[in-house]
Amino acid sequence: MQKRTIVPIVYILFLMLPIYWLVAMSFKTTNEILAGFSLFPQTFTLENYQTIFTDPTWYWGYINSILYVTMNTVISVAVSLPAAYAFSRYRFLGDKQLFFWLLTNRMAPAAVFALPFFQLYSAVGLFDTHLAVALAHCLFNIPLAVWILEGFMRGIPKELDETAFVDGYSFPRFFATIFVPSIKAGVGVAAFFCFMFSWVEMLLAKTLTAVDAKPIAATMTKTASSAGYELGLLAAAGTLTIIPGAIVIWFVRNYIAKGFAMGRV
Amino acid sequence: MKTENQKAWFFVLPVLLLVAFNALIPMMTVVNYSVQETFGDNVFFWQGLDWFEQILRSDRFHAALGRQFLFTFLILIIEVPLGIAIALSMPRKGIWVPVCLVLMALPMLIPWNVVGAMWNIFTLPDIGLLGYFLNHVMGIDYDMTQDPLAAWITIVTMDVWHWTSLVVLLSYAGLVSIPDAYYQAAKIDGASNWAVFRFIQLPKMKTVLTIAILLRFMDSFNIYTEPFVMTGGGPGNSTTLLSIDLVKIALGQFDLGPAAAMSLIYFAITLLVSWLFYTLMTKDDLN
User: Fold this and answer.
1) CA angle in degrees (0–180, nearest 5) for A82-B272-B215
2) pTM of this prediction?
3) B136 in reach of chain A (CB within 8 A)
4) For chain A, what is the mean pLDDT?
5) What residues form the membrane-spanning segments (chain A) (predicted)?
6) Which of A151, A163, A116 lies closest to A136, judged by CA?
7) For residue B286, pLDDT beyond 60
8) Which of A37, A90, A257 is closest, CB to CB, to B127?
9) What average pLDDT score do residues B235-246 get?
10) pLDDT tens figures, A145-168
């Protein structure tokens, strides 16, 4: 045990404290929460979770969120793969400008786009569908996916492509059976980031939906404002939103450091 | 080297179409609003550049912009050195590495409105863990809904909690890519810890730190959901950052013209500062 390991331990404790408090709250009854401070749940209850799992307005929030996040991840990675290949292998007219323009879309505040997005998706008849949210999230996820994949693809020597073509592979066959498998880690990381940013973004998701595709955030906001102060229920709903992210991150744990570096180390 | 191939455009086309659909059409809507006045009923009048002039001269905009720059400045000055320090003290190999990384990344995977709600619950004066501790154990009078300074400290702490791990993970990725031979050579030369950091570790982290600083700048400059859930911009206007003010104008007062003009100015500032950062940090590579 070295002295310096104390730093990451203290940091992780600091990260876990608010999460612990949220989880602890979720096992308390509303009465206990409002009665006063208690470090551990005194009257341990699963009532809050029971409400969420039995009330369709609650659990459909999670299903809706997972549906549009999955759609967005599939679309973003699928269209970004060929584009990243083009950026990593070829020079073409306006390539640098196009790459920079893609990245600028990450800089636009979502608040700026909320209202125009609502009008655009209403006009094309997609308002309140999962597809609308999935497509809207492409705005910031595609640039990110292209950026990450391009970083990973640059690390694959060009000789791989050339050898395959000499061996008589057609481009689609080479791409699908040799090239993409060789950057598996990159694809996993890109998918993870698309999932993550689509999962955490709630402003656009709320703006673009009303009833049928309503994300979990909208249900939570309604509870927070209307039903007085149902803190326990709110805490349980919040706790459940952490789980999908935690599961997904476990799958990419070995690539996570490199993934955050967009493949550029 | 890359070969010249104009057909590569076909590979980029799907991405281009999808992003353009999402970026250009809403952007044109914003530009359209920014030069017109409306009294409802879809009746618009040409307004020229008046809104831009009005926004650029308004004290309210200057105040929100000032708060925004202060917030982003605090975030960068705290999170970047802290993130590097934590990355330096992390183990390089062993079973604890993935555990550390997963736990550290966890805050980034929580929906932003939940982060806001979580910090609200955490800081409630009498029943939140932090609020109770400060008020009843430390004896500090703490209530972020009343005290602007407390509100500021809370939102900055929240962001440090939320995003420092991004800097940690990026720096860590840079550090593990350094071959052991570098450290051995430094040891033989009798280099100090500072010299190892300055001449071996920092240069190796440069690319990833550029990404970290750029991402942290963009995201903290555009922050909306978390402070909105936590303070709603208050107490008073003390934590009304640029996005919060923008949404107040656009959706609260429904002043579409000024809101659109403000959006464009806001976007232009983000672009300009990002470009400056990028140019400054990659200047040495070009020479």
Assistant:
1) 55
2) 0.87
3) yes
4) 85
5) 7-27, 66-87, 99-118, 130-153, 174-200, 231-252
6) A116
7) no
8) A37
9) 86
10) 998 898 889 888 888 888 998 998
CA distances from B258 to B47, B53, B68 (A): 11, 10, 19
Residue-level pLDDT at B287: 47
Question: What gap in Å lies between CA B169 and CA B175, rounded to an integer?
Answer: 10
Residue B78 belongs to domain with CATH number: 1.10.3720.10
B37 lies in some domain: no
Give the total number of structural domains in chain B. Answer: 1
Residue B78 φ/ψ, nearest 5 degrees? -90, -50
Domain presence at residue B1: no
CB atoms within 10 A of CB B174: 26
Q: Which residue of B has its CA nearest to A32?
A: B127
Q: Give me the sign of the Cα torsion angle B13, B19, B22, B25.
A: negative
CA distance A108 to chain B (A): 6
Read off the pLDDT of residues A75-86 as tens digits, 9 standing for 90 and up.
Answer: 999 999 999 999
Q: Can you say whether the dihedral through the CA atoms of A97, A98, A103, A106 is positive or negative? A: positive
Where do the domains of chain A lie? 71-215+244-260
From A117's Cα to the closest Cα of chain B, the distance in A is 6
Closest Cα in chain A, distance from residue B192 (Å): 17
The per-residue pLDDT for range B200-221, each reduced to its tens digit, is 888 888 888 888 888 899 889 9
Q: What pLDDT shows up at residue A15?
A: 93
- Answer yes or no: is B229 within a domain: yes
Write out the residue range of the structural domain in which residue B276 sits.
Answer: 58-286
Asked if B197 has any chain A CB less than 8 Å from its own CB, the reply is no
Q: Hey, is B172 helix, strand or coil?
A: helix
Contact between A117 and A208 under an 8 Å Cβ cutoff? The reply is yes
Q: How confident is the model at residue B167 (pLDDT cuts 50, 70, 90)?
A: very high
Query: How far is residue A203's CA from residue A129's CA, in Å, rounded to a whole number?
Result: 15
The predicted pLDDT at position B74 comes to 96
3-state SS record for chain A:
CCHHHHHHHHHHHHHHHHHHHHHHHHCCCHHHHHHCCCCCCCCCCCHHHHHHHHCHHHHHHHHHHHHHHHHHHHHHHHHHHHHHHHHHHEECCCHHHHHHHHHHCCCCCHHHHHHHHHHHHHHCCCCCCHHHHHHHHHHHHHHHHHHHHHHHHHCCCHHHHHHHHHCCCCHHHHHHHHHHHHCHHHHHHHHHHHHHHHHHCCHHHHHCCCCCCCCHHHHHHHHHHCCCCCHHHHHHHHHHHHHHHHHHHHHCCCCHHHHHCCCCC
Would you say residue A188 has pLDDT above 70?
yes
Judge: domain A71-215+244-260, CATH 3.90.1530.10.
no
